[in-house]
Design a protein that fits this description.
single chain, about 270 residues, alpha+beta, 6-stranded mixed sheet, 3 helices
Length: about 270
């Protein structure tokens, strides 16, 4: 979302209606945001409520700060962090601090169960760019996903992993069935919703970041670091994802974000 970096916490530059319309117009059931200022979160809650998107207008969103309120140089003094929105009312949020990378931004993992009787849980996270701590945070997240599975829950997680699919550090996420020349040597239990598109770097997927952090992607071009994972054993049919172009409708900005929207479709058992 780049809520501070690009928008400086603004709720009036067109970002909020663009984000809400993207959710509503596409019939999205679950949405995750990273780098969102708390004022923008509150404005998005109000916008989605006004558009009639949630089934329960009083219970459909959760926020977890990675930087607290009070610093006027970040989000105009607002807190800054991650958020999830669910069309079906969520239960109580689980909030996990990731291994501390020593920076001012305290990375976290935010998860909510859905109150629809399906034992489904939706999570988001924003992994550090620090090479020294990226692996530790990824493994923390993966272990939490495994814990939920052991308890009989089906988990979907979407977020900025700051690691490309072909990186060895994600081998413990991707299932061996996802192996391709673009993403080999996998040992995990998950599929990423954009890993099977035959037209978009099979096994890797379509780029999401406006730039090429880290090594050059296996198919060239920009990097994919935004991912949606589902446990392979929970898949109940075909799945897919698309990386969408970044809106240019925000006032005074060339683009509304520095990452593309990643939209996925999946049915889980």
């Amino acid at each position: 979302m780049a809520g501070h970096t690009l928008h400086k916490g603004s709720t009036t530059d067109g970002l909020i209606p663009q984000a809400a319309s993207s959710i509503v117009d596409r019939g999205v059931d679950l949405a995750a945001f990273n780098e969102l200022c708390q004022g923008q979160y509150s404005a998005l809650v109000a916008e989605l409520r006004a558009k009639g998107w949630p089934q329960d207008p009083q219970n459909f969103a959760r926020f977890e700060p990675s930087r607290p309120a009070g610093n006027p140089s970040v989000c105009g003094g607002d807190a800054f962090g991650n958020a999830v929105f669910t069309k079906v009312a969520p239960g109580g949020a689980a909030r996990f601090a990731l291994p501390d990378d020593g920076t001012a931004e305290k990375r976290n993992m935010l998860c909510v169960p859905l109150s629809d009787g399906t034992s489904t849980r939706f999570c988001t996270t924003h992994i550090t760019t620090s090479q020294a701590f990226n692996v530790a945070q990824l493994e923390f997240v993966r272990e939490k996903l495994e814990d939920y599975h052991a308890k009989g829950e089906t988990v979907l997680i979407a977020g900025d992993f700051n690691a490309q699919p072909n990186y060895g550090r994600l081998n413990s996420f991707y299932a061996p069935s996802a192996d391709t020349p673009n993403n080999p040597n996998n040992t995990g239990r998950y599929r990423e919703l954009d890993d099977a598109d035959p037209d978009q770097c099979p096994g890797y997927g379509e780029w999401t970041a406006d730039g090429t952090p880290g090594v050059t992607p296996p198919c060239g071009g920009f990097a994919k670091i935004d991912l949606i994972f589902v446990r392979e054993s929970a898949l109940a049919g075909p799945y897919s994802a698309d990386s969408l172009g970044i809106s240019t409708a925000c006032t005074g900005l060339a683009a509304c974000s520095d990452h593309r929207i990643l939209v996925g479709k999946v049915t889980v058992a």
